[in-house]
Every structure is written in structure tokens, then in C-alpha cells.
Design goal:
It is a single chain. Helices cover 70% and strands 3% of the residues. By secondary structure, it is mainly alpha-helical. It folds into two domains: 1-88, no CATH class; 104-294, no CATH class. It has a two-stranded antiparallel sheet.
């Protein structure tokens, strides 16, 4: 961390020095080519007062550049802190939802299956536990709305938002959520409505009754999930979401070699992309955990 900070400082100092030298050289050339008399340029040698005025101007401009650079850095740091705090609050709120879900797991289980027979749906919808599931969905949709707004405002990155799409899909995987979605949708903003409208249509298109074989259900789930990720990627105009399933189908098996301090500094600046680990395909796909990236 210390060597990276040093290289950050050195890089900033070098940029400011180069800028000041360029200004100094430009002012010297301009002064050298000033037309003082006659039809052309008078290449009269610079006098000591000329050099002093050029140096003073360069120093003044360099001071302005230094002040501008550090003010820009302070604003960027403030924006990063604000974004970090906003997302931290979102993560804390999601933890509370997970806690509620864990405490009510036994009572929620009948409502969190993919399919239910029509008679079973009517029976479960009339039970008191239905209110527990209803409350869970309201809590999760509130978080999804905040998450979508943060993505639109660039508070969270594409990759972080893509990790939340797994939770979106797992919520749609519940038959009771899909049945009650029409009751929820008028309470939420365009992004949430559109995402879950698209998701509900995808589930309806792939069938609302369980297939005869488990293998058929696995294939159906893969098709639904792929279609949903593509739909959300298109809606949010985010290629990271569209690539998410293929990226998570590979597992890191070997870490890259640690680079030197200069290369680490370039990576931290975003000038050089970090080296990826060696990855191999995951042997068998599993149902997403529904837990967003932290």
C-alpha cells in the first residue's frame, strides 16, 4: 500500500512537472517568434527581464495546475467516500433482509418453490404465513429499487449490479412472488417494473407447471436464466450482465504472479488492466445463491 501511494505521488508530480515545462517552453518559443518590426520575425535574443517574466508566468501557471489537480483529487475522494457509504448502507439493509428470511425460513418455504398446484396456491395464499412472504417481497423490492437507482447514478459499478441480478432471478423463482407481482408493481419505479415484467413474461413463456423429469427442469431453468440475464442486460444497457453467466461458469484455479511496485501503481490507476487468474470451466452448474456481491 505504501509503495503504491509513493508511485501515485510520483506519477502526479511528474505530470505536473511536465505540464509546467511544456508551458515554459511554449512561452519561450512564442516570445522568440514575436514580431516586433518589419515584415517577418525578429529573432532577437531573449534578455534577462524576458526570461524572468517567462519564468514567473510558468511558475504562476504551474501553481494553478497544482491547485487544480489537488482540488480535483479532493472532489474525487469525496465522491468515492459518498458512493462507498451509500453502497455500504445498501449492503447493511440487504443483511437485514437475509436475517428476516433466515428467521422465517420454515414458514416461507411453501411460498418459495418454483411451482405449486392451483389448489395448493389457493390454500397457501389464504394462510397467515402468506403475509410473511408478502413482507419479504416488499423488503427485497425496496432494495432492488435502490440498487437500480444507484446503477443509473453510477454509484455502483456494472459488475456489482450484475451480481445482484442473481437475487432478482431467485425472487422470480418463487411462484408466490410471480402470482403477487401485479399487486407490487405499482409501488416501484420504471426500472424495477420493467425488469420484473420482463422476468414474469419469461417464466410464463417457459411454463408454470413442473415438467415430468428433473433433467427437463434443469434445462428449463438454464433457458429461463439465460433469457432473463439477456433481458436485464438490454434494459440496463450493461454488457457485464450479458456476460455474467458465462463468466461465473469458470472457476479460478491459479493466481497470477505478483507484479512489481510500478506495475501495481499502473494497475491501481487503471492504466493497465490487472492480470486475470487462470480459469477452468465449472463441472456442473448450480442454482444461484441469491446473495449479492459484497
Amino acid at each position: 500500500m505504501q509503495d503504491t501511494s509513493f508511485w501515485r505521488w510520483l506519477f502526479s508530480a511528474a505530470r505536473l512537472t511536465i505540464a509546467a515545462l511544456c508551458v515554459l517552453a511554449t512561452m519561450a518559443v512564442i516570445r522568440w517568434l514575436v514580431v516586433t518590426r518589419g515584415p517577418g520575425f525578429d529573432l532577437k535574443p531573449l534578455t534577462t527581464p524576458d526570461l524572468i517574466s517567462i519564468a514567473a508566468g510558468a511558475i504562476a501557471l504551474a501553481a494553478f495546475l497544482v491547485a487544480f489537480w489537488f482540488n480535483r483529487g479532493a472532489r474525487a475522494d469525496g465522491a468515492r467516500i459518498e458512493k462507498s457509504n451509500a453502497y455500504l448502507n445498501l449492503e447493511i439493509a440487504s443483511s437485514e433482509v437475509f436475517k428476516y428470511e433466515a428467521e422465517m425460513e420454515a414458514r416461507l418455504h411453501p411460498y418459495r418453490t418454483v411451482y405449486a398446484a392451483p389448489a395448493e396456491r389457493a390454500r397457501l395464499a389464504a394462510m397467515p404465513d402468506a403475509k410473511i412472504a408478502y413482507n419479504l417481497y416488499f423488503q427485497t423490492l425496496n432494495l432492488f429499487e435502490i440498487c437500480a437507482r444507484f446503477r443509473r447514478q453510477n454509484i455502483i459499478e456494472h459488475q456489482v449490479f450484475a451480481s445482484w441480478v442473481a437475487w432478482f432471478y431467485d425472487t422470480l423463482d418463487d411462484w408466490y412472488f410471480r402470482e403477487m407481482w401485479e399487486d407490487f408493481r405499482c409501488n416501484y419505479t420504471d426500472d424495477v417494473r420493467d425488469i420484473f415484467d420482463l422476468g414474469s413474461a419469461i417464466f410464463a413463456a417457459h411454463g408454470e407447471s413442473a415438467p415430468a423429469r428433473a433433467a427437463d427442469e434443469e434445462e428449463r431453468d438454464r433457458a429461463r436464466k439465460q433469457a432473463f440475464y439477456e433481458a436485464v442486460a438490454g434494459h440496463m444497457q450493461c454488457t457485464e450482465i450479458g456476460r455474467w453467466l458465462s463468466k461465473t461458469s469458470e472457476r479460478a484455479v491459479e493466481a497470477p504472479v505478483l507484479r512489481g511496485p510500478l506495475m501495481r501503481a499502473l494497475i491501481s490507476f487503471g492504466i493497465v488492466a490487472p492480470p486475470p487468474p487462470k480459469r477452468l470451466p465449472v463441472s456442473s452448474p448450480t442454482r444461484s445463491a441469491g446473495t449479492p456481491d459484497t
